[in-house]
Amino acid sequence: MKRLYNILAVGIVAVLVLAACTGGGGEAKPETLLDAIKQRGYILVSTDPNYEPQSFLNTDGKRPADTKCPADALTTAEMQGFDVEVAMEVGKGLGVETCFATPDWDLITAGSWADKWDVSIGSMTITTNRQKVLDFSVPYYYAPAVIAVRADAGITSLEDLNGQALCVGSATTYEQWLSGDFEGLGLPESSIYAQPPQVTIVPLPTDQECAQAIAAGRQDFVGYVTSMTVVNANIAAGFPVVQLGSPVYSEELAAAFDKSSSLPTDSLREEVNKIFTAMHSDGRLSQLSIKWFGEDLTQSPK
Length: 302
Fold this sequence. Notes:
- There is one protein chain.
- The protein is of the alpha/beta class.
- It has two domains: 33-140 and 253-293, D-Maltodextrin-Binding Protein, domain 2, CATH 3.40.190.10; 142-251, 3-Layer(aba) Sandwich (D-Maltodextrin-Binding Protein, domain 2).
- The chain is built from ten helices and 13 strands.
- The strands form two sheets. Strands 1, 4, 6, 7, 8, 9, 10, 11, 12 and 13 form a ten-stranded mixed sheet that branches.
- A hairpin with a 3-residue loop joins strand 2 and strand 3 (55-57).
- The longest helix has 21 residues, at 2-22.
- 41% of the residues are buried.
């Protein structure tokens, strides 16, 4: 009888230890964000649904019935674009489904995400200010920043912009460059090609909204600063704008991770770095760039 009691006691202790290790739910409690992602079967990527051709809604896409994505997230069937396909490759590399969150850009760049999404793959430039709250992957592409102006504005040079108003997306590198915040921008001097004109800055939630406002007839600014890829897409879509001169600076775009995440992100960042490095080496990034931008922007301009 005593032996049976001892066996039962040992068994109870073992059950309690197992429950403590698994949190009582039958699965081991994740120790890192990468563990949590693999355990749940999806990665939640923040990106912009209004940033064509990098990322935008697929109006013909239908949500799959068997998706693991949360109800308030978008699936790969509902999004499209360069960043979207890059994020999909990350999901494939991790062996999980890719899902998309679409918070405002200033919330993404501010950090302190409160675990609402796992990573940003949304054409974010690595800057000194952002590195205070975010960690970055290796760059996955490089984009020239340009100024677009209304085609009927009669603007032909940067000097012509002095005293005018330009639109930018709030909390973007375009706003930093235009305001002369080169220290916060943190780009090497070799990546900055021009000094900003003296203008009134008109911020909107995203730089794409600047272009859309001009197309809708808004007259309180003559142009906007954004990626050359966006301007090319705007012109191709028939927006009444032209690119003003050459690029004003070049950006290094990378995935971003929240320093204040409740779970360590280092192993996830390492895996994303491996995936991006492999995509650079085997040409997948180049192919995606040519597909969406019409040119290869995955090679460093330096």
